[in-house]
Predict the structure.
Amino acid sequence: MRIFGALLILATVGCASAPIRKADAASLAAAESRLLDGCYVCLLEARDVFERVAVGKARPLVIARLFETYVLIGLRERELALDSSEAFSKARALVTELPPSYAGAQYVDLAELMPPDFAGTPRAESTQLRRRVPAQARLAELKAGLATGEASEPFRAYLSAGVDCLASSRNLVTMESPASEVPAGTSLLVKYRRATCPIVRAAVLEELLTEVPAFVEAGLFLARQASLNITAAYVKNRRSWLSNAYATFPRSASVTYALGVLNQTIGDCRAAIRFYEDTIALQERHEDAAMQRVICLGHIGQFVPAIEGATRIIDRGSYNLADAFYWRAWNRHRRRELAEARADIDKARSISFNVQVLILGGGIKYDQGDLALAELDLTEAVRMDPSQCIAQWYLGLVMFKKSAWPETAARFGQASVCYETSANESVSRLEAMRASDHDEDFKATQIAGFEAVIKEDRDQQWAAVFNAANAFAWADQRETALKWLDRIPADALVAPQADELRKLIGGKLQ
């Protein structure tokens, strides 16, 4: 709906002293068309033309459009978690030049209520900003007021879409049904806002990218759509969308965080860490980037930096304290800092009671020799989720340390079945991955991961069988022990120990 141009072009018709020169009128028409194209780069191009033409007698005719463009630029910057203060400041400076009936100050006030993109903003800051959002009745009033006014219709429509986002940010009922279609004839500018909030409409965003390739911010929202099917096309598209967005918005924490998530999803933690650190450099208190960085550091064996990162999260009292205590305990356990790991996992448990906390806590307590409490944690973990093989394994170790031979044999027997089941499931997933059309890098990472998990599970399966046989031998159930040893294949990692145990069973265990 390109309604700007006619008003300005008509002002040039008449005589040589017209306030807008003919060449400028053509530039203004192109700028207004570009503004309606809607992309951030488009808005900047339109602003530059309006700034150039808004001098002398032409200024009163162009000032409203310049004002609206600055407000739209500020809004777009907020939508990308960029600093919008300069754009809004310049818009406010123009308010006194607008006609008295033009509600310029109110428009800027409303625009500055719009929260920045949640993915690029620390959650604590987002929570504070949500508290500034007016009550639902006031939002309805603001939306009704945008139906009319001297400002252009696309500008008011963009602000109206923003009010819907404000309502959504308060978890209120939106002014329009999220499922409603974007009306036909809507400008690309407004389509973008309607397609990004309160829900993402992928088809509309793809249309915008096709019509205006410079609309790279639309690609950001497309790339953030989750999927369980990490196909080659999925990864390729997201890499392309995010790379283009990053080239235009290298200082957008929304973009850098999305790149971190993408790389972590496809198994490249080293690349993910770089983008998480970029995000933290832009938004120092970005809790999610800080937490995912800690997780990735631990998984690549950088235990000390991971501990330091988790400590910063804890010291700041971020919302994800339980996760920070858990992962600091996890990394400390890897470094055999048992007292410190125990303190952390106990703190994590006091905040969030779940299977993973119980298993890690049980493992730490076992390593400390606190068998009674380790058994309590691990038994509860198995009750909550019997598929947690490591809990079954540790319970076997607890019973072994207690010299409870029948219980030891039973626990390791259960652990062997658990690991066998897990390995078989991973074999099925490996075969499916090999036959899939997933992204090649992601596919290679997943195949390597499945192969490693299968080997580890098989090794654990046969080690559990060996430990069960050993417990049966100590319980003087030698025939049963031999039967269990016979299950172990000749190429198993524990095969030499199994042969040695067979020889010992022929004599007398001490």
The longest helix spans residues 440-474. DSSP finds 26 helices and no strands in the chain. Residues 1-16, 172-180 have pLDDT under 50 and may be disordered.
